[in-house]
Amino acid sequence: MPHPLNVTSWYFLLFSRFLRGEIHGLNTAFGLEEADLYEMRQCQGTVASAIFGNYDIMQQSEKISTFSKDVVCFMFLDEETEAAIKKIIDNTKRIGLWRVVVVHNLPYPDPTAFVKVPKLLLHRLFPDVRYSLWIDGKLKLVKDPYQLLERFLWRKNVRFAISRHYRLFDVLEEAEANKAGGKYDNASIDNQIEFYKREGLTHYSSAKFLITSDVPEGCVIIGEHIPITNLFTCLWFNEVDRSTSRDQLSFSAARDKIRSRVLFDN
Questions:
Q1: In the chain, fewer beta carbons within 10 Å around the N or the C end?
Q2: Domains (ranges, CATH) in the chain?
Q3: What are the pLDDT digits (tens) for 131-144?
Q4: What pTM does this model have?
């Protein structure tokens, strides 16, 4: 039988690295400017993305209704990316619909790692937001944010939605694909997977009924900021922080921890 969930003790596991400090994001790793923090705290809903290491080309959203323009779009950049596109940032720190936020004192040496901070911890960066939509920096938003909320959350009466991997369903297969593609050093991936296997990880099969996949694509995340979803993304971030930055490998481990501790109505 599932154990009662102690939200308080688990929720604050993420007080490491960038969250040290009286004000999250101020004078810390993943440091933000006070003016940016102030504007972020005015939001009731947000679309967020990030480009670090000048890796992607910023895409402008399309088909955004006048009503949805009140849902502020924030694009997190590191100093390298800001320097490359500085000439097109206007005096209100905007590029089209994107409100640019430059991050300082990044906590990891690898851009693929520190992008996970805004990706998985939006509820910490935007404490007053009820709904958020994350899209990877390589993507273009071509649907109205409220249409996406209606389609993937409200219509199904769910609180969290994430894009499923286009081909793989099995974490063990995803790990091998990451190794073959040189996504991370093989020893770290092997250590992570062996740990999860000792924790009970098995191949994906129909025996997991109602769970349609153990591997997300993760390029789109839509969520309502409530304790259980916030806790889940905190746990997921902790796995990324202590193992590898390949978040597809740790998604099901965090999900199954939650499922083992709370009563789920499938």
A1: N
A2: 7-261 (3.90.550)
A3: 999 999 989 888 89
A4: 0.86
